[in-house]
């Protein structure tokens, strides 16, 4: 726990400075006034929590303030932290009973799917698992090469097809190869696509179906990679991917940027999707299990 | 929550029903709604504050014109202010001695490499000799990505992983000058504005070569951080223009307002897809409507155009005008409609009263309706589809059985079809004039 927190803190260190002073002044030894609430609202909005979540959090805090008879803004701080924390679940442990377990990675363009796959792979390799990559992004220039470079670096084989070839076929081949080789986990990379692109989402559904044909019950996990700097569009994005291919969990990438990833609250709350991992840096070991406590600290810039 | 701003404001002002000048109280109520709309569109909260203050000042005491109701009046002021903030689009600054050097910068995954390819394509099609520079040695295969784009476009790509990006930029520009190239486009690695090491690298490129344009590539889906990112890049290296990417999604794109208000530099292009021709000159009024959530009719029309097979669309329009619209054509239309994407999204793009009406309908119901209609029509013979008049009771029973429906469903569909035909005939007489009212 302490180690997680410190890594998380290190990842967020740069960003923390900017608001630390603010929340300290805001929730210092002053009386709670209208301005306190306004500024708290700004703080949560700025962290991309969105209007709806922000309003809910503030309503709950205001009720608590009335019932507890608080007058000093310093009394709000732990309540705010608790309120935020209560809205996030500790992610379930990632364990697979199937062998091979097939994980399908999806997301919009530029979310960080391929990089995240490399980081996940490092994690699984540390757990002494054997892996295989399926390079089903046959569309974007350089996508297969990108995964291949990671495969070479990590010593993981990559099953790929010709450029512009059918991504479903690549996924199918990858799973067959994985079964034949007896690997533990197969990670399927897919092309980034905006959730509003009907045909591309249909294509993704097809890849999902084909994976099921290659191995019954597969995919065993469908993970959505979400860029932490995404604003209100994160929710419709997650909803669309969930509806299309039954996303089972979310990975928040690039949380080491200055963004705070506040949309995670709405995604957990409205879609019931757990946040599984967070990307906190460039290095493979910088992908850590999502830690709700550390995440809330990051939101508060503390 | 997801009502449009127009709808919400009209609701508020419906209760007031005042004419004449807008009072301070009226405006304050309206401003609360405008604020919510802008925050929902990801405009930075501090930018929203100053924006609201400006609009409030203009709106109080503003004469309500006879043509507009108070809600529309406020919307108009907000819209005008937004358009002014967004500013006019600007072309690339292709001036000065050749080669003219353009650099693309931004966060990881914002779309720099793809936009570099698109710019190269656009310039090349205008007859420029273009060189691409692969200035991202960090992300695996970023260089290959640009090389593959270069191959497709037949544009040379300079790369050398033994050089630092500033060294590579310098060498490439020298080479371009000797080789008689008109434009050099430098792609750079994605970076956070907080990464001082990588920001210093950009500063070194700026010091090494003379740039005509430094374009910040921003993902239109980005949230509140857009402001800090823009400030970071502006302060470190100076920005001369913006490219807003992934605009083919359904994000409202409020980041454009945040970024514009702190950099003041023009939005030069918007990226509207992954293909290399998906780079457009942006239209401030369209973007303003989108940010306000007032529907995107032009976007809707474009989506329809992309999905519709123009030839068959024209054929069915002709038939429609001649009153020969058949069940086959109906089926055809439904199929094309489906290609436009989920109905829920299409409905969100609808403006005004149409949008409000649509929001009361569950898109799933319509989609289900589509399916039953399709099943019933598919169970008819060709002859029946052309001439529904021959549908007697026994034919209807057969069709119902074939589609797995009740005879009533078949009857309902035929009735609906008749009503549609009647409506078409009305349009034929009155032309399209009647349509105007639907776009309140």
The appropriate CATH architecture of the largest domain in chain B is 3-Layer(aba) Sandwich
Percent of residues of chain B in helical segments? 55-70%
**Radius of gyration of chain A, taken over Cα atoms and rounded to an integer in Å:** 21 Å
Structural class of chain B: alpha/beta
Indicate the mean pLDDT of chain B: 84
Mean pLDDT of chain A: 90
List keywords for this structure.
heterodimer, A: about 300 residues, alpha/beta, 8-stranded mixed β-sheet, B: about 450 residues, Four Helix Bundle (Hemerythrin (Met), subunit A), Rossmann fold, 434 Repressor (Amino-terminal Domain), 3 domains, 20 helices, 8 strands, globular, disordered C terminus
Give structural notes.
The complex is a heterodimer of chains A (302) and B (440). With 302 residues, chain A is of the alpha/beta class. Chain A has 11 helices and 8 strands. In chain A, strands 3-2-4-1-5-6-7-8 form an 8-stranded mixed beta sheet, with helices on both faces. Chain B is an alpha/beta fold. In chain B, strand 5, helix 9 (226-237) and strand 6 form a beta-alpha-beta unit. Chain B is globular.
């Amino acid at each position: 726990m302490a180690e997680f927190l410190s890594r998380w803190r290190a990842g967020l260190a740069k960003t923390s400075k900017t608001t630390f002073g603010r929340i300290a002044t805001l929730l210092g030894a002053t009386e709670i006034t209208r301005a306190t609430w306004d500024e708290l609202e700004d703080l949560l909005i700025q962290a991309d929590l969105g209007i709806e979540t922000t309003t809910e959090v503030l309503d709950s805090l205001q009720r608590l303030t009335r019932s507890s008879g608080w007058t000093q803004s310093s009394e709000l701080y732990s309540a705010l932290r608790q309120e935020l924390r209560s809205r996030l679940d500790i992610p379930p442990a990632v364990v697979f009973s199937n062998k091979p377990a097939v994980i399908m990675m999806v997301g919009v363009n530029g979310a960080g799917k391929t990089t995240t796959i490399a980081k996940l792979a490092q994690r699984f390799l540390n757990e002494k698992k054997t892996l295989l990559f399926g390079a089903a992004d046959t569309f974007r220039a350089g996508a297969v090469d990108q995964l291949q470079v990671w495969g070479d670096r990590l010593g993981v084989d990559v099953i790929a097809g010709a450029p512009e070839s059918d991504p479903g076929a690549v996924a199918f081949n990858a799973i067959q190869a994985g079964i034949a080789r007896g690997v533990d986990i197969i990670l399927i990379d897919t092309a980034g696509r905006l959730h509003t692109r009907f045909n591309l989402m249909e294509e993704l559904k097809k890849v999902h179906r084909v994976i099921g044909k290659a191995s019954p019950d597969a995919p065993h996990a469908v993970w959505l990679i979400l860029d932490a700097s995404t604003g209100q569009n994160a929710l419709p994005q997650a909803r669309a991917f969930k509806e299309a291919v039954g996303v089972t969990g979310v990975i928040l990438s690039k949380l080491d940027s200055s963004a705070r990833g506040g949309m995670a609250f709405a995604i957990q709350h409205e879609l019931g999707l757990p946040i599984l991992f967070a990307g906190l840096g460039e290095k493979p070991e910088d992908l850590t299990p999502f830690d709700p406590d550390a995440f809330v600290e990051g939101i508060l810039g503390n | 929550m997801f009502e449009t701003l127009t709808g919400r404001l009209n609701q508020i002002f419906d209760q007031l029903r005042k004419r004449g000048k807008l009072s301070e109280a009226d405006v304050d109520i309206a401003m609360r709604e405008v604020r919510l709309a802008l925050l929902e569109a990801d405009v930075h909260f501090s930018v929203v504050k100053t924006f609201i203050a400006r609009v409030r000042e203009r709106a109080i005491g503003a004469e309500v014109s006879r043509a507009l109701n108070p809600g529309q009046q406020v919307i108009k002021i907000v819209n005008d202010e937004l358009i002014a903030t967004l500013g006019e689009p600007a072309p690339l600054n292709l001036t000065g001695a050749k080669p003219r050097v353009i650099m693309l910068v931004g966060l990881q995954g914002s779309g720099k490499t793809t936009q570099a390819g698109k710019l190269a394509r656009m310039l090349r099609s205008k007859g420029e000799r273009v060189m691409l520079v692969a200035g991202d040695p960090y992300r695996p295969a970023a260089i290959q990505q640009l090389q593959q784009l270069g191959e497709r476009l037949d544009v040379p790509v300079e790369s050398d992983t033994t050089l630092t990006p500033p060294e590579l930029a310098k060498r490439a520009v020298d080479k371009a000058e000797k080789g008689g190239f008109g434009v050099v486009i430098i792609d750079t690695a994605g970076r956070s504005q907080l990464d001082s090491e990588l920001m210093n690298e950009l500063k070194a490129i700026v010091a090494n070569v003379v740039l005509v344009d430094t374009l910040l590539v921003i993902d239109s889906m980005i949230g509140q951080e857009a402001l800090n990112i823009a400030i970071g890049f502006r302060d470190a290296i100076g920005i001369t223009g913006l490219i807003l990417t992934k605009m083919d999604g359904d994000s409202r794109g409020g980041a454009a307002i945040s970024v514009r208000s702190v950099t003041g530099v023009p939005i030069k292009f918007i990226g509207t897809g992954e293909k290399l021709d998906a780079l457009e000159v942006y239209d401030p009024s369209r973007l303003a409507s989108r940010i306000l959530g007032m529907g995107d009719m032009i976007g809707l029309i474009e989506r329809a155009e992309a999905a519709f097979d123009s030839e068959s669309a024209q054929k069915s329009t002709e038939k429609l005008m001649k009153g020969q619209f058949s069940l086959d054509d109906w089926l055809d239309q439904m199929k094309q409609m489906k290609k436009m994407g989920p109905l829920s999204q299409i409905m969100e793009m609808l403006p005004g009263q149409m949008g409000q009406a649509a929001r009361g309908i569950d898109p799933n119901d319509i989609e289900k309706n589509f399916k039953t209609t399709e099943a019933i029509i598919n169970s008819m013979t060709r002859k029946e589809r052309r001439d529904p008049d021959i549908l007697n009771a026994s034919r209807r029973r057969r069709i119902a059985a074939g589609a797995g429906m009740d005879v009533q469903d078949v009857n309902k569909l035929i009735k609906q079809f008749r009503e549609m035909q009647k409506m078409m005939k009305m349009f034929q007489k009155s032309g399209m004039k009647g349509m105007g009212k639907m776009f309140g």
